Amino acid sequence: MLTPLAARTSFTALVVCRVLEGLGEGVTFPAAHALWANWAPPLERSKLISFSYGGSQIGTVIALPISGLLCQAWGWPSVFYLFGAFGLLWFVLWMSLVTDLPKDHPRISSEELHYLQKTIGDVSKMRKTAKAPWGRILMSLPVLGIATAHVCNNWGFYTLLTCLPTYMKQVLNFDLSQDGFVSALPYLVSWFVVVLAGQLADHVRNKRYLSTVAVRKIWQSIGQFIPACFLVAVGYVGCNKTLAIACLTMSVAFGGFSQSGYGVNHLDIAPAYAGTLMGLTNTLGTLSGIFAPLVVGVLTEDNPSREQWQIVFYIAAAIYSFGAIVFCLFASGVQQEWAKPHCGHGDDQQTGGHRSSINRSSESSSEDDHLS
Known about the structure:
The chain is mainly α.
């Protein structure tokens, strides 16, 4: 809500305002992951997290057309005032209705509390008594797989989120009001895909059709290879606006499968450190939000032709594909040794031989145990 005032004051004030806003928003997903570690049973993680994080798509669906209309009717500051007011309302509701732990919630039933304690345990105890084993986290291949997928997925997402309206206007010749509604269409379809993919992922795991790691890898492959193909196709549909919009919509929509791929995988490999891992990978992923629009600007600012936009889509498709390949090579579906309560968390600390043998055995079978 302070952005219009800061913009009228000075460029420096605007930059400071936006930096502070980014600092506040930066903790959203890590905090949500830490919260879900306490509330999401292992076999319900995909559906719960995909549904809640699907709010990002719904927010985009609402914001794009409304912002266009508000700018036309009352000017650009009205966008910040309206959504800022909604943010304050949400904050009041969040503080009133949400608790970190199920046992602290005043309206939880005894049956639900017992179920959550039985299936999840007390993850918060480990977070309080053990320091994050940063050395082992940074050397972990599954963490590398998640981080790479996160960065590459965000590259495609931010390319479309920030530049899709520009593409619509420069190449497909949509006016501002029409642009807002059409630009929102891919994210509306994506929301349905995100929710359905999460439901399907947990159904497959519950029925033991596929292991957790297989679900994560397959869903991630769908969520990045298929969007890559549709992005490349956009550059070859000529002036067919309907087909171009259909390809862009499918690209964004199928990206929703990734939420049940890398997006949930932090909780699979390290429930107690899920918020920490999300903070790490989301920080790296946010860099895509900085550099992807810059690359688009460099390629299209002076020459916004279809050929230049083809290059943009080729780059995004290549990065999408790279992320899926790395994730499929390194992803895991079981809790890592360094994330278990009994494991020593100093980087140089080792467990005893007998305990290590038991741990290795339990890790190899824990995925089937979770799926039983």
